[in-house]
Amino acid sequence: MTTIDTTKDALGQARVRMEKAVEDFRKDLAGIRTGRANVSLLDSIRVDYHGTMMPLNQLGTLSVPDPTVIMISPWDPGAVPLIDKAIRTSDLGLNPATDGKVVRVPIPALTEDRRKDLVKHIHKVLENHRTAVRNIRRDIKEAVEKLEKDKKISEDDRKRTLDELEKVTHQETKKIEDLSAVKEKEVLEFK
């Protein structure tokens, strides 16, 4: 963490760190299946290609020809079995089909139990990111209180800064909760 010398530094750092937490939450949600095909679902897949673990999207073109299938067209046809194996061994529970040139990944419809499990997972990830935002708030609050203790800012400045810090914290927490609500609605939506 960089040093905080002013209240402006403190609030700026709080915003940047909290926005990173929101962006991380957004990425985590992108990897959660909703029953519709989405190439971001495969972002976490790494393929052992000639001894190097490579992201799937660097081995070919990913597309969604229809709402229930993700199609992967590798640039090297020799990578097809490697991609197939990487998807099968992932924890996504997907079973790809290959024809030697492309890999088709059918996205099965979610069962009601699986939807409930995904919602629980979303809530767990949400709580982890809420905690991250609160930890950032705590760190910045301690830094501001230290500035006052070291006589670098007045008590009024401390109060103003902490009030502003609370506003930023509430804004970022609301963003996370809104993202969670949208994703939960997507998961629970029956097609």
Describe this structure in words.
The protein has a four-stranded antiparallel beta sheet, with helices on one face. The chain has a two-stranded antiparallel sheet with strand order 1-2. It has helices spanning 7-30, 80-89, 112-149, 155-188, and strands at residues 46-49, 52-55, 60-66, 69-74, 97-98, 103-106. It folds into two domains: 7-31 and 111-188, Topoisomerase I, Chain A, domain 4, CATH 1.10.132.20; 39-106, Gyrase A, domain 2, CATH 3.30.1360. With 191 residues, it is an alpha+beta fold. Helix content is 55%, strand content 14%. The protein contains four helices and six strands; from the N terminus they run H-E-E-E-E-H-E-E-H-H.
